Amino acid sequence: MREIRIDDETNARLEELQSERRRQTGYSVTKRALLAQIVDEADESWDEIVDSFRGSAVPLSASEKATTRSGRVASGTDTDEDDIDDILYSGP
User: Fold this and answer.
1) 10, 35, 73, 79: which could form a disulfide with 6 (CB 3.0–4.6 Å)?
2) Domain range summary for the chain, segments of one domain joined by +
3) How far is CA 10 from CA 4, 6, 15, 37, 43, in A?
């Protein structure tokens, strides 16, 4: 059997879930059994889990995105690759 390490916060949450299950059913459950059940249920709703990670990558609302875009400034000067090369690679 393999062992996994979990942080204190996750461990405390598992203990809360164990306690909740015991209160609701009158039966105890091991962390191992609880995790197995969580994994089984996660397997059944895999698309939702994947989407939950996608959604948290950039949690900006449409108005926040608009605000960010409005802060961009154009100088009014067209710049092409040659101009950039001249600025970067020509001497003072």
Assistant:
1) 10
2) 1-67
3) 12, 6, 9, 16, 20
Query: 């001497």: which residue's tokens?
Result: 91
- Consecutive H or E run containing 38: helix 31-44
Contact (CB, 8 A) for 22 and 28:
yes
Residue at token pair 């962390």: 31
Q: At what angle do helices 31-44 and 8-25 cross, to 10 degrees?
A: 90
Question: Any idea what DSSP says for residue 26?
Answer: S
pLDDT digits (tens, 9 = 90+) for 8-42: 999 999 999 999 999 999 999 999 999 999 888 88
pTM, two decimal places: 0.49
